[in-house]
Amino acid sequence: MRLFPIRLVLLSAVLAPLLARAGGDEVVLIYNKRMPGSRSVAEYYAKAREVPQKQIYGFAMTTNEVMSREEFRDNLQLPLAHRLDSDGLWRFAFVTTRATNDGPASMQYRVVASRIRYAVLCYGIPLKIAPDPGLNEPLTEGMKPELRRNEAAVDSELAWLPMIKTGVSLDGPMQNWIYGTTNAALLNPTNGILLVARLDGPGADIAKGLVDKALAAERDGLWGRAYFDARGFPKTDSYYLGDEWIHEGAEICSELGFETTLDDKPETFPASFPMSQIAIYCGWYDGNVSGPFALPRVEFMPGAFAYHLHSFSAETIRSVDQRWCGPLLAKGTTCTMGCVYEPYLSGTPNIAAFLARWMASSFTFGEAAWAAQPVLSWQTTVIGDPLYRPFGQPLQLLYAQLERRHSPLSEWACQRVVDLALAHGASIFRMAIYLENNNATTNSAVLTEKLADLYEREGKPSSAIETYQRALSLSPSPEQRIRLQLMLGDKLEAQDRDQEAYDDYQQLLQESPDYPGRMIIYQKLLSLARKLNKPDEVARYEALTK
């Protein structure tokens, strides 16, 4: 059963601007006194988001990514709860819980008033809590044996801090009682949850950059293309749940007018796939960063969200080439999530629920991340500015603002208007006319490519070819150029314009000599050389394809 039906996406998008903007006064910042650069990240964020100085806390702890349960409790968890209480940011009191079918009413000592909702862990705060074999607690009834573990992500363990005085068990994951909510106001310490995120990554400068990119996207919008990499599991497979989340996420992005690519093959995107202008990426299940994301340059747009579902995607976040979170941050994404230890699939974020709330309901990144997390006291780390809210303005208003400022990003707003109309019943012919008559199309590789796509869908191959060629002359991004050349070559071959296809592929190799898919291009050129009776070129490409 979907937590957020697709048919409600557009209604939520219309209502989203009515939500109040989160502010820095709702944040506490936490830095590691022993980690060089940690305090500077806290101060940088405090200035950018106007966090009160009295809400910046420094604690001394290990500079390693992993800490013991004892150190977590004594040097971070309990001192933080004490400061929030003593500084008047939280007020604890006894609360009577109602009787249920499973038990009688009870009294709990918990947070009943809170002036903050977010905790931001700054670069150098340890990432994970090591397993403690000496921690003996009563076992939770009905919990599966493989879940009876007490290691956890620091973020996830701090998320239930408002319940610190209620005797919470640490023998496994705790149900997130706010999971799936569509009411952002419920994500509050008075409901037992603290929205924890970290400004972190392979270095302090990368952590600070997350703030800059988030603020830029809040001002200008998050634009670009969406990529989803499912694995094609059948519904009978136990892993189908992950594919279902990814498929629903792709549907949400498409419904909201994003150019969306969904791959359903078991393999992840290969390095040869031209992944251009990335706004959203969700995929699974490689252990280490791979495909387009392992290339020296990745085309992340300002504000981009990238997530790869893997049990150990955040085993470390200080590496630029190990696992996923660290490399994605180093390559330019603005926010991500990951798992520090084995979570099992049902204990990972529901990415469709996240995207629905973040993109359609205009939740902040922190709100959406924890509303999409089925469990707490488990393995998820949330990396990025939790106040980041790029979908807080109506599309048409933001489009008008970008045009008034003559921002190059206005081309993306125009494309989204077209895709949104197509997703909800507008005719291809009408949208093609709209782009033909739009002055912005003349100088935009993005809009000209979109117009070519529409001609192709209308069954006008010659017009599509001519328009793809025109897009190539309008300074597309490097990965967009490769995509255009690959599409153009295929369409020229389909029209028996073999010499033009041959020239196109040669141009691709000349302009992109490091293209990882050059072997594929060699094979195409070999086939065309044979058809065009070019014996010298046949010999050349036969040698290159051996």
Structural write-up:
The protein is α/β, with parallel strands linked by helices and 546 residues long. It has 3 domains: 6-383, no CATH class; 394-476, Alpha Horseshoe (Serine Threonine Protein Phosphatase 5, Tetratricopeptide repeat), CATH 1.25.40; 477-546, Alpha Horseshoe (Serine Threonine Protein Phosphatase 5, Tetratricopeptide repeat). Helix content is 39%, strand content 15%. The chain has a 4-stranded parallel sheet, sandwiched between helices. Helix 8 (351-360) packs antiparallel against helix 9 and helix 10 (395-404) packs antiparallel against helix 11 (410-423). The longest helix has 18 residues, at 69-86. The radius of gyration is 25 Å and the shape is elongated. The model is unreliable at 1-19 (pLDDT under 50).
Write the layout of secondary structure elements.
Blueprint: H1 9-15, E1 27-32, H2 38-49, E2 56-59, E3 66-67, H3 69-86, E4 90-97, E5 106-114, E6 118-122, E7 128-129, E8 152-153, H4 154-158, E9 174-175, E10 195-199, H5 204-220, E11 225-229, H6 240-255, E12 259-263, E13 278-283, E14 300-308, H7 325-331, E15 336-339, H8 351-360, H9 365-371, E16 375-376, E17 380-383, H10 395-404, H11 410-423, H12 428-436, H13 445-457, H14 461-472, H15 478-494, H16 498-511, H17 518-531, H18 535-544
Parallel strand pairs: 1-2, 1-6, 3-7, 6-10, 11-12, 11-13, 13-14
Antiparallel strand pairs: 4-5, 7-8, 9-16, 15-17
Helix pairs in contact: 2-5, 6-8, 8-9, 10-11, 12-13, 13-14, 14-15, 15-16, 16-17, 17-18
